């Protein structure tokens, strides 16, 4: 076994690999960029080497510097994690040439499976079912369009060298094809350095089911069952689970054997995932093979009881597979939720910022447990624009799917993140939808459940307002001294005392009245409705609210985290951010300047779709930005005329920067 390995990655996966290596007594070397000098993965390893600037192309993609770091520290092997260089055959070959073991498949397997068109031809030869499509090398746009018409719309354009949803577009009609092809090619060349695409039939209501495979240097290959990854947004996974609901033993064996045949066709070694598109009737087609460990591997670990990183290390060291196919067993059900810094209400636009608060449910990390949290960041850390938007992976296990769903809901309820937008509330709503809870799964689930996911009312105003009042009272109680004039308890010699709170929730402003009776007790009036109010606070964050009286009384336990005027409230019913307004401090503030189009986050200008003097209509695309490896389109908020472009294509743009001016 290795004595020391270098982990050529960052974030959660680098911490994950380091945890298993430490348990096995293997020393670890981290590499890091200037932006990651204080990152968790640097602290998790025994040694760390700075390899370049913040941008991946200046650090984590600089494989020559990584090899130099391995040589300087005496590492015997390199674990690439996922993303970055994990599926780069040149890097794998360079490791071998430098006398290092690449903890992954041979370069030839990466190459064969890395190009989608080539892999399709190999799979066809191996007898693995394929989706009807065009996988040729001729990339003439006119030919591609003719092939799309031959296959029949809708079709899916996919970057041949890609993955992770990048360079992928669904095209519903011939009129959309040219623009979609151009966008795919732009995204593909920026992400992978190759703009070749393939075209496939777009399967209606498909499920995304993948098989975990493992091969060793002795020529053996097995599968560790399946994962259902159908719940996706923008072709990227949101919720993953194992085993796949509704999977029969016969179909599992059929898919597993097909996945093993695919792996053997390229002489595969190590951990890999064969991804299939599955029809609702059970027919399945090869989609692609990811020649690395997957983000969602913990759900497989949860149901099999195996540590897949340990398997990777043992196989890379030349040991045989730890178990034979007949020795593998499944137990229970596991679900993983990807917690990301993003705004679901704005098309899942990635977000950046500091995690001022990051509180989690009771959990284990990087090992099997009923509730597992794998994260590379924590409270006080930041999500930067340089890397992907993942904050953490939340994995739950249950004896059956119903118990796993219940544990997922409770774990998401107890996940409190403040300081940047996340998808935690969205994940909770998604898991509770009729489609997901009822296992009616396909890749269109999010769109099908749009009303439940994006039209949900959120945290009731009464609970949010009561929580803000409770927090304010708790803070004032701590500020009291023996001086009676310091008390803010509303005492009056005669009569009741009232106090007004001006709050905003979303775009609406609300006046909340707190009344204290002379004989004791409090009343809260919210949106014109008066109710009895009592509170028991533990410090300034935890509050037990009692709203109403008699049998109608509602008891709600909330957490409140304050950042200046903003109060983030978390309750079993949901969460919300309210602002307590000081009218004097905000006196004289006017409306925001109209006619501005600003960057929703830091990124690079890809193109402008209108020029000065052009008349544009509301909703018309005006500019394209690239941020966090994805393209984002900025559209006109109203009809108008483009007055001025304020950046050039290729410029780096800061968060909130004005991109162009629009006149009436």
Automatic annotation (TrEMBL):
UniProt cofactor(s): biotin
Biotin carboxylation domain mapped to chain residues: 1-451
Domain (ATP-grasp): residue spans on this chain: 120-317
Keywords tagged on the record: ATP-binding, Biotin, Ligase, Nucleotide-binding
Pfam family, one: Biotin_carb_N
InterPro entries: ATP-grasp, BC-like_N, Biotin_BS, Biotin_carboxylase_complex, Biotin_carboxylation_dom, Biotin_COase_C, Biotin_lipoyl, CPAse_ATP-bd
Domain Lipoyl-binding as annotated: residue spans: 586-663
Gene3D superfamilies given in the database record: 2.40.50.100, 3.30.700.40, ATP-grasp fold, B domain
Full protein name: Acetyl/propionyl/methylcrotonyl-CoA carboxylase subunit alpha
Species annotation: Roseateles agri
Lineage, uppermost ranks: Bacteria, Pseudomonadati, Pseudomonadota, Betaproteobacteria, Burkholderiales
């Amino acid at each position: 076994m290795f004595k020391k390995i270098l982990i050529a990655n960052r974030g959660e996966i680098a911490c994950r690999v380091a945890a298993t290596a430490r348990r096995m007594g293997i020393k670890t070397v981290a590499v890091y960029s200037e932006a990651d000098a204080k990152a968790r993965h640097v602290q998790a390893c025994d040694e760390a080497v700075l390899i370049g600037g913040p941008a991946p192309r200046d650090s984590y993609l600089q494989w020559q510097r990584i090899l130099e770091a391995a040589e300087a520290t005496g590492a015997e092997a390199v674990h690439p994690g996922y993303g970055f260089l994990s599926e780069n055959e040149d890097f794998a070959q360079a490791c071998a040439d430098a006398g290092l073991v690449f903890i992954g498949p041979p370069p030839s397997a990466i190459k064969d499976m890395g190009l989608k068109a080539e892999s399709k031809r190999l799979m066809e030869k191996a007898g693995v079912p394929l989706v009807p499509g065009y996988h040729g090398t001729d990339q003439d746009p006119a030919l591609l369009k003719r092939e799309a018409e031959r296959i029949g719309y809708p079709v899916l354009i996919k970057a041949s060298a890609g993955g992770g949803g990048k360079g992928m577009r669904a095209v519903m009609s011939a009129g959309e094809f040219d623009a979609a092809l151009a966008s795919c090619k732009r995204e593909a060349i920026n992400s992978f350095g190759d703009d070749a695409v393939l075209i496939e039939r777009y399967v209606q209501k498909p499920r995304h089911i993948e098989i975990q495979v493992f091969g060793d240097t002795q020529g053996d290959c097995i599968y560790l069952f399946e994962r259902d990854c159908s719940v996706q947004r923008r072709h990227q996974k949101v919720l993953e689970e194992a085993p796949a609901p509704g999977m029969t033993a016969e179909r599992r064996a059929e898919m597993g054997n097909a996945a093993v045949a695919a792996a053997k066709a390229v002489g595969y070694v190590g951990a890999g995932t064969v991804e299939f598109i599955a029809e609702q009737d059970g027919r399945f087609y090869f989609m692609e093979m990811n020649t690395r460990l997957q983000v969602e591997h913990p759900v497989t670990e949860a149901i099999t009881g195996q540590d897949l990183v340990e398997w990777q290390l043992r196989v890379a060291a030349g040991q045989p597979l730890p178990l034979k196919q007949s020795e593998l067993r499944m137990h229970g059900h596991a679900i993983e939720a990807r917690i990301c810094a993003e705004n679901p209400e704005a098309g899942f636009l990635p977000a950046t910022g500091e995690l001022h608060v990051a509180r989690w449910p009771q959990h284990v990390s990087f090992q099997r447990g009923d509730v597992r949290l794998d994260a590379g960041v924590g409270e006080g850390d930041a999500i930067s624009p340089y890397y992907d938007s993942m904050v953490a992976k939340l994995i739950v296990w249950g004896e059956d799917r119903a118990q796993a769903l219940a544990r997922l809901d409770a774990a998401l309820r107890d996940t409190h993140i403040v300081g940047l937008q996340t998808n935690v509330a969205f994940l909770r709503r998604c898991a509770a939808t009729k489609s997901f809870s009822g296992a009616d799964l396909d890749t269109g689930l999010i769109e099908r459940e749009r009303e439940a996911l994006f039209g949900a009312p959120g945290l009731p105003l009464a609970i949010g307002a009561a929580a803000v009042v409770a927090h304010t009272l708790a803070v004032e109680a701590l500020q009291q001294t023996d001086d009676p004039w310091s008390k803010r308890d509303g005492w009056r010699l005669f009569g009741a005392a009232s106090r007004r709170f001006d709050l905003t929730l979303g775009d609406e402003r609300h006046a909340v009245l707190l009344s204290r009776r002379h004989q004791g007790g409090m009343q809260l009036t919210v949106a014109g409705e008066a109710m009895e109010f009592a509170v028991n606070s533990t410090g300034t964050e935890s509050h037990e609210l009692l709203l109403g009286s008699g049998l109608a009384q509602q008891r709600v336990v909330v957490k409140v985290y304050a950042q200046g005027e903003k109060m983030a409230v978390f309750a079993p019913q949901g969460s919300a951010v309210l602002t307590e307004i000081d009218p004097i401090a905000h006196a004289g503030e006017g409306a925001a300047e109209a006619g501005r189009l600003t960057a929703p986050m830091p990124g690079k200008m890809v193109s402008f779709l209108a020029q000065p003097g052009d008349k544009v209509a509301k909703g018309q695309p005006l500019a394209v930005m690239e941020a966090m490896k994805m393209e984002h389109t900025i559209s006109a908020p109203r009809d108008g005329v483009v007055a001025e472009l304020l950046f050039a294509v290729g410029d780096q743009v800061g968060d909130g920067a004005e991109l162009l001016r629009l006149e009436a």
